[in-house]
Design brief:
alpha/beta, Rossmann fold, Tyrosyl-Transfer RNA Synthetase, PH-domain like, 3-stranded parallel β-sheet, 11% strand, binds tryptophan
Length: 427
């Protein structure tokens, strides 16, 4: 079975709340245990530097966010857990990608465009207060992803454009220098729970309605006590529908517990008791993590050591791959053998289709990669023309062309085939 690599970048700003925990952190830690996957989680501190110019806050946030992920159960021995700024190959790859990225492409990035629109609306100059760092954000992010040959990037909708840009940069690079980079895909999970905040709107720092994940116990109790409810008196049946309190409970409880809570609502539990039960249920899950979190934050040297070990593992992949990429673009030892022949091979060696006829009298084709490895086989066609037409569609990488026409060879992933087709289409 081929391995699928997942990669998640964690911005090292802000203080995580229960909404982040339920919607992102908890599912990510669960996902890190799937068999057949490799999982990369890194602290995107170079990205944080774009927004934060306070050194002490940079350091503190990185400490807290690292502690948070470990406290909720990310196992640094099972996954690649590292700090972006510990991997010098990432800025190095950023430059190689910068050189194959159109400036116009970056002009269209949402984050940059939002700044420009704001400036225009305020009558300011187009690029007022826009750093080149903000402008280059998508290239740095592409380097994060491409450095580790990640296949799937779990992100929110707002980040999909960035993944598509990374894909385009990888295609451009591969087209110029041969098949080196893996084309990543965004994995958007729309089923993730949206937790309401204490005022019933989506829990979000900007609404000031959050319940902090690792605040002290008594702070959490107070924040839960602040959840808005209606004015029904003790003994009166309560609505579960539309109740933020009930929805938050549901995000932490088992089916049976939720059912029992629903019954208690019908039976007229007082809001005070309901809040107490909610607090206890959440605290039951969070308390052991909070203890671990406090211990980690109190021992920065241990955290530093964990991150350094993670960086070493990550670099065992990044260093040789970066060497390969330097070689590919011609940043080479001057005494190494003239590589003209090799370069030509890199450019001309493309995936290809081979048509043939089987004993059953039907016409087939197969797709092989640049080195001749079998990637996929077609179903049978009545005539060579029929087979050729599908090949033509595949070569132009027309959406849906391969639908039901190709079966993957052993050990080949859909991503391998997609990459080969994209390369052909771009050639
Ligand atoms: N831009 C991402 C965010 O704001 C963080 C990030 C940086 C990232 N590099 C990444 C996410 C690489 C996924 C992959 O959430």
């Amino acid at each position: 079975m081929s391995i699928t690599r997942f990669l998640t970048g964690i911005t090292t700003t802000g203080t995580p709340h229960l909404g982040n925990y339920v919607g992102a952190l908890r599912p990510a830690v669960q996902a890190s245990r799937r068999p057949g996957t490799e999982n990369f989680y890194f602290l995107a501190d170079y990205h944080a530097l774009i927004k934060c110019d306070e050194p002490a806050r940079m350091q503190r946030s990185t400490l807290e966010i690292a502690a948070c992920w470990l406290a909720i159960g990310l196992d640094p021995d099972q996954v690649f857990f590292y700090r972006q700024s510990d991997i010098p190959e990432i800025p190095e790859l950023t430059w190689l990608l910068t050189c194959v990225t159109g400036k116009g492409v970056l002009n269209r990035a949402h984050a940059y465009k939002a700044s420009v629109d704001k400036n225009h609306a305020a009558g300011a100059e187009t690029d007022a207060d826009v750093t080149a760092g903000l402008f280059m954000y998508p290239v740095l992010m592409a380097a994060d992803i491409l450095m580790f040959k990640a296949h799937k990037i779990p992100v929110g909708r707002d980040q999909v454009q960035h993944i598509e840009m990374a894909r385009d940069m990888a295609s451009s690079f591969n087209h110029l220098y041969g098949e080196h980079l893996v084309l990543p895909e965004a994995a958007v999970d729309d089923s993730v729970a949206l937790l309401p905040g204490t005022d019933g709107r989506k829990m979000s720092k900007s609404y000031d309605n959050v319940i902090a994940l690792f605040a002290p116990r008594e702070v959490m109790r107070k924040q839960i006590a602040g959840i808005v409810t209606d004015s029904r008196a003790p003994g009166e049946p309560k609505e579960t529908q539309g109740s933020a309190l009930f929805q938050i409970y549901e995000a932490f409880a088992s089916k049976d517990e939720t059912e029992a809570f629903r019954k208690a609502f019908e039976a007229g539990i007082s809001w005070a008791d309901a809040k107490q039960q909610l607090f206890e249920r959440i605290d039951h899950e969070i308390a052991p993590m909070r203890e671990k979190y406090d211990a980690l934050v109190g021992n920065p040297a241990q955290l530093e050591q964990i991150l350094k070990a993670g960086a070493e593992r990550a670099r065992s992949r990044a260093t040789p791959f970066m060497n390969e990429l330097r070689e590919a673009v011609g940043l080479r030892n001057l005494a190494s053998t003239p590589a003209a022949k090799k370069d030509k091979a890199a450019k001309s060696a493309l995936p290809s289709f081979k048509q043939y006829r089987e004993a059953d009298g039907r016409h087939y084709f197969k797709l092989v990669d640049a080195s001749g490895r079998l990637l996929a086989q077609s179903t049978g066609f009545d005539s060579p023309q029929d087979a050729g037409r599908v090949i033509g569609q595949l070569k132009r990488n027309e959406a849906g062309a391969a639908q039901g026409q190709l079966s993957l060879a052993d050990g080949v992933s859909q991503n391998d085939v997609d990459t080969a087709l994209a390369t052909l289409a771009a050639s």
